[in-house]
Amino acid sequence: MKQGVWENEYKSVENLWGYNPNHVLSTYIDIIPRSGKILDIGIGEGRNAFFFAKQGYEVEGIDISETAINRCLQLAEKYNLPIDTKVGDIREYEVKKDNYSLIILSNVLNFFSVEDIVTIISKLKTGLKENGLIYINVFDNEEPSILKAKERCKQVAEFTYYDEKNKMYHHYFTQNELEDLLADYETISLVRSKFLDLTHGHPHYHSTLEILSKKNETNLIIGGDSGGKRVK
């Protein structure tokens, strides 16, 4: 099961993702409304959640790994940060309508089928308040690990591979695909990065896409691209 895979990942290292928040989130914190909660999907040990809790935001998060959630709660208690956490799968999680000022999906969507990805994003959009933002960080189609996926998994669609042993998908995003998921929102930031990861295992490279997009009534009416700011 996918849950078992992530349990093993979190148990294999002391901290899987490091302690610093995603740079795009910390850069644009001033435009995130304070009128709603923050939902961190795939909260892990809490690096993004802790950052926003320290700024006074009300944060809730879910993760499929019980080990990750327990570690997150221990750190939250240590630093006296009130964070509401739950072990769960986003496909089954109740997302309250018009409730969140920011929804975070960092290193989450790559492990679902294309159909599930579309359903998840549609579900999350209903949870965002007016002027709320959604942040997505994914591995793109130039990610080096795609070579392992091609060797070990069954290809089921373009840039999508299914790991039959662990019952999980590996999907690698194109820039157009990611933009299309949020085509009805204003793009605040779109970043493509290649970097050396030293946080776990042997040093290895990653290739990622990050997008931060804003929900507002104008976008929903005209359904389109209002020329949001992009950072390369």
Please describe what this structure looks like.
One of its GO terms (biological process) is methylation. Keywords: Methyltransferase, Transferase. Pfam families: Methyltransf_25. InterPro entries: Methyltransf_25, SAM-dependent_MTases_sf. This is Class I SAM-dependent methyltransferase. 31% of the residues lie in helices and 30% in strands. With 232 residues, it is an alpha/beta fold. The strands form 2 sheets. The chain has a 7-stranded mixed β-sheet, sandwiched between helices. It has a 3-stranded antiparallel β-sheet with strand order 6-7-8, covered by helices on one side. It contains 8 helices and 10 strands. The N and C termini lie far apart (37 Å). The longest helix has 14 residues.
Quick structural gist:
By secondary structure, this protein is an alpha/beta fold. Helices cover about 30% and strands about 30% of the residues.
> Which percent range describes the beta-strand content?
25-35%
What integer is the average pLDDT?
88
Sequence of secondary-structure elements? HHEHEHEEHEHEEEHEEH
| Oligomer class | single chain
Terminal residue distance: 37 Å
Low-confidence stretches: 221-232
Please give the number of β-strands.
Answer: 10
* Spatial strand sequence of the major β-sheet: 3-2-1-4-5-10-9
Compute the CA-based radius of gyration. 17 Å
Shape: globular
Helicity range: 25-40%
Largest sheet, in brief, is:
7 strands, mixed
Based on secondary structure, the structural category is: alpha/beta
Continuous helix count? 8
